[in-house]
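Quick one: GMP synthase [glutamine-hydrolyzing] from Acidocella aromatica, structure tokens please.
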Amino acid sequence: KILILDFGSQVTQLIARRVRESGVYCEIIPFNADVARMQAFAPKGIILSGGPASVAEEGSPRAPQWVFEAGVPVMGICYGQMTMCVQLGGEAKGAEIREFGAAYVDVVADCALFEGVWSVGAREKVWMSHGDHISAPPPGFRTVAVSEGAPYALIANDERRFYGAMFHPEVVHTPHGAQLIRNFTHKVCGCSGNWTMAGFRQAEIAKIRAQVGSGQVICGLSGGVDSSVAAALIHEAIGDQLTCIFVDHGLLRAGEAEEVVRVFRDQFNIKLIHRDASDLFLGQLAGVTDPEQKRKIIGKLFIDVFDEESQKLGGAEFLAQGTLYPDVIESVSAIGGPSVTIKSHHNVGGLPAYMKLKLVEPLRELFKDEVRALGRELGLPETIVGRHPFPGPGLAIRVLGEVTREKVAVLQKADAIYLEEIRAAGLYDAIWQAFAVLLPVKSVGVMGDGRTYDNVCALRAVTSTDGMTAEVYPYDVGFLTRVAGRIVNEVRGINRVTYDITSKPPGTIEWE
Ligand code: XMP
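--- reply ---
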């Protein structure tokens, strides 16, 4: 396994992704964590991430000296290269030319990282993002790649197996970057690359059994990817000691509640309590138009209902949650005050501490795409594992303004047509999230010989990698007019369809 020391780069997680894609387990730990913790991890190699600081600044972060004395290979990326350089006796300073974006490096000598990818004399595309640069490499290092702005684009100390890259091999804009990282983990560190989802499944099942013993586990199932995969995995480990509680707020997409019941109860034979609480949720949402208010009501009710069902059940000692690795990575960028709340995300599954249950979190070490791979491994249907993200408050924040059962039904129909067309056109997996929104706006239309006066529906589709920023999906107009035609013809209550062409920022993905 590989240890990644984080210096606060925006893309540290991508290093971890590339390492894991090479079949090697890794973890991210802040550069200033206890050395004892790093030692206990016993890595076969260490990667130092990039970061926003400048090595020239007084008090800028340094790797613990242990890193260079542990006798394992080290790869420094960007800031990681800089700090490695100065800690080992080289020199770095602020560069006159700041390089940012695509750049080219010339490969001037061979090195172990290049096997099968780069060769001497080649000019290779990379992604640079740095202000500092090395002015004198540390003793024992040779230069293997150069660029105009970074004469020491890649340096190597073959004897100690230390490498320093000025560019970012972890981002997709460095076309051969993944292979360079793979060479580091496999060829240099000697990792075997046998960390697979099949292996993870077996190891995790053993861990769950050891943790739970003969205890009872409850799990909030929402039909989303994370809770579904967690439930399927835990069920495989402990069978009927697991009970899933599906709090159905009546605000899911068309047919999804039925699918959850069919897949988990009928197909997987999981003990499932399906609590139809739609009357309760819709009742409390009556007359409420403020988005934050809706979220609060739904969040609180969800917990109440879940609590009630688990009390009825009684005897559970453990609560299963689909917590993922990005939720638990400790962040280095604790600098800066609290950020502004744009939307108070209510996540189904987040339960209060007073429930006093011990947590079972079998996905804590996984990234989202790994969770999907595990779900496939466990035999969950593609409609669940490949599903677009869906907000906890569901359609309540896609029916703008007041939510009623009738409006939810209208939106479900429009949304189902939209998704059906997206799937039929083979576009589903190219899109991060696509959905319909029902606007509290009426407009005039004409159908046959009659005048209509009905609601407007907006379609949304974005691409994104993490939901933090998003681009509008560029459909062709023919596709959009086909969807609009079907919705207006087939859904009573909608007579006009628009396409939302706002990216995030300044828009948000959801409308509320
Ligand atoms: P926004 O609308 O903030 O959405 O651009 C970013 C991502 O978060 C999802 N989202 C939510 N998820 N509870 C959730 O669990 C919420 O209240 C919530 N609001 C937005 C949204 O679907 C998108 O994936």
